[in-house]
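We read letters as residues; the fold follows as tokens. Both lines appear below.
***
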Amino acid sequence: TGNTGSGKTIILNKLKYDFSNIKIISNRYFSERMTNLYTHELMRVVFAALVLVIVICFSILRNIRMTLISLVPVVASLISILAMVHWMGYSLNVAHLMACIVVIGLCIDYGVFVVYAKNNNLNVGTSTAVALSAITTLVGAGSLLFAQHPTLFYVGSTIVIGIITGYLTSMLIV
């Protein structure tokens, strides 16, 4: 036929007839399916990371109040990340979720360090250490904001927003 789409359909139908166990799917369908599977799996992993962080914090701090206060930077960071994703018009994707795991790990550190120092009246430079940690992370992740590839940009923007929020929350609220 003169129609290319129609010619492809004839070829695909012949392949399907010749090989009855073959499945033909579109690139778009495959891509969407893989994205959904990865997103679902990473949502599960992010949830597991949060639960483990809470359990570990409580087992070390042995105080529910200190544990909850330590989690404030994590919660604030995750909320700010979700707000950023929404505000920028993106949908939550694999890159955001992978970066969230990093943000959870770093922000719980900020919260624990500040809570522990304040609770034990320690004046050992905790604020400086937390600031230095945040700055070095921001420099590393901030470089991804200049990446051409969208996935790298998503990782960078997620970490930057999460770390800024986690740092500010740990210093100003915790």
Q: What stands out?
A: Residues 27-61 form the longest helix (35 residues). The helical segments are 4-18, 27-61, 64-70, 72-87, 94-119, 126-142, 150-172.
